[in-house]
Protein 1
Amino acid sequence: MGRVIHSMSVSLDGYIAGPDGTFGWGMPTEELHRFHNDRVREQGAHLLGRNLYETMRYWETADQDPDAGEIERDFAQLWQALPKVVFSSTLSEVEGNTRLATEGLAEELARVQEETDGDIGVGGAALAGSYARLGLVDEFQLFVHPVLVGGGTPFFPPLDEQVDLELLETRTFDSRVVYLRYGR
């Protein structure tokens, strides 16, 4: 059974988006994008909240963009092939290799785990926070960008109790982004 992984870019002060909701500071360099592509290649599925789904919809057709580079086309093809489940109370339909969640968090995770052998990404701050509060996230993978944004959407949700983690891996990229991988 694959790991459940919450992975996102984060500012040094702990936010995935700034006070105005933007995250342009978190855009990957070529080296970092290749690393992300390799990580997605290992995934068997991805669970998304509505906001992240709407942000990632770009990748459903990005491989057809004549201005897209090799790395972007590769990511688009990986993303399109990846089975995805979206948790939303407002969307009535989704596109591509994606379906809307019809059950609760634990039930949907169990279903996806039965359907795939690979790792399962979980993204979107609210959704990942809900999974973390239930103790269902096996790894937290942070791409820490050297920027302070002063507030916004936090990477980690408020928790009911302390969660001790073990540092599993670190890597510093040429862009000064530091990758931190922690396990439970």
Note: Helices lie at 30-41, 50-56, 70-81, 105-115, 125-133.
Protein 2
Amino acid sequence: MRRLPLFILPLVLFPGALLPLHIFEPRYRRMLGDCLAGDREFGIVYLPPELREHELPPGHVGCVARVDDALLLDDGRSNIVVSGGARFALGGYSDAETPYYVGLVDEYGDLPGDATLLAAAAARVRELFGRVGRAAREIDDDSAAVPSLPDDDGRLSFAVAAHVDLDAPTRQRLLESRSAVERLADLESLLASAVGPLERRAAVHARAKSNGHAESDGDA
């Protein structure tokens, strides 16, 4: 079991994802200073709206955050960028004499699964993600490339989820899932429901740009 400083927030960090944070509370300024003087790691834990910080139950899942970049401001605040590391399960709180919580955490990973099912699910999600991304960029006149995805099928679900608009409870449910196939199935369902309407809007948008207006039945 590892001792890990905790940043308890109403948001979810996924493994491999980047997250900018603004540090302004005195207790978290102290935590950041301690982390920068040490291994640069702390844990981000999702706080549901119905719970208080001290009420998080044992087994609650979070994600290790590593400080990749930190801009320390003159007034003591900081702007930082963290990257998501491994998931962990909260065992309880340490008795550390710090103004911030320190968790006692255990490793939390996926359970063994069927590699064939995983590869098939990953292929479908990659294809849908590409289509959704291209359609969204066409609608927004955005020439940027669709975000690249990891080659590792086991990590794919977290990379996709980090780019998709999901509410915090859904993100937490995905973080807690120990089956990559099940996470990909959830994301496949979400992307499949979005891709048709987005591609139709993108086609109309493309026609409007080329013709000066969107074509419709009966209109000149």
Note: The longest strand covers residues 78-93.
